[in-house]
Amino acid sequence: MEKYSALGFVSLNQTQKRMLMYLKMHGAQPAAVLAGEMGLTNEGARQHLMRMMEEGWISSESQSKGVGRPIILYQITAAGFGLFPDAHAELTLQLLTSVKALFGQEGLDRLIQSREQETLKQYQSGVEGMGRLEDRLDYLVSIRSAEGYMAEWYQDGDLYFLVENHCPICAAATRCQGFCQAELQNFRQTLGEGVKVERVEHIVQGARRCAYQITTLDK
Fold this sequence. Notes:
This protein is of the alpha+beta class and 219 residues long. It folds into two domains: 3-81, Winged helix-like DNA-binding domain superfamily/Winged helix DNA-binding domain (Arc Repressor Mutant, subunit A), CATH 1.10.10.10; 89-216, 2-Layer Sandwich (Muramoyl-pentapeptide Carboxypeptidase, domain 2), CATH 3.30.1380. The chain has eight helices and seven strands. The protein has helices spanning 14-26, 31-38, 42-54, 78-81, 89-127, 133-146, 170-175, 178-191, and strands spanning 29-30, 58-63, 71-76, 151-156, 159-164, 195-201, 210-216. The strands form two sheets. Strands 4-5-7-6 form a four-stranded antiparallel beta sheet, with helices on one face. A three-stranded antiparallel beta sheet has the order 1-3-2. Strand 2 (58-63) and strand 3 form a beta hairpin. The chain is globular and about 55 Å long. 24% of the residues are buried.
């Protein structure tokens, strides 16, 4: 099953779902790039984009780069981001509110800590015996993508970046920052003592994605 097939927006056809997924993964893009990725003519791509703009899923902006005509970039709107699932958001928020009301902030912190420990146990088991950082990143990308985070990694010189293009628990993470801190600690422990992991982009702070910069300490 293709990864965009789970996006059940009835008003979008498969090409438009693929476009929306590409914008989710790569950020704002011109029509020509989307046309090339979708195997369409520029005019064909623009027709799909116009329909999605009419329905409010994407917007466009003009960007000037030196001499020449401005470039039109297309990006997902807040309504478009809402089409991607936030795993049981309302129920999760209700449960967090109830836990805090019944057991206080300490009880909520203990709940998050318990979740962190179980997740870390699973991650560390998955990377057991892996010596190479690249192998550990491959594993993290695989398991985080399976959990709905649309993860990927890449290397830029001596730096590595772990990127998550979606947060399926965004509502909970926005309400309680402990989830984000716990995930950062899990990444640090899973990737090992030989690296430094820092979050450099954060969805709940308004970024398009969460991104983690990974530096090997022996460089």
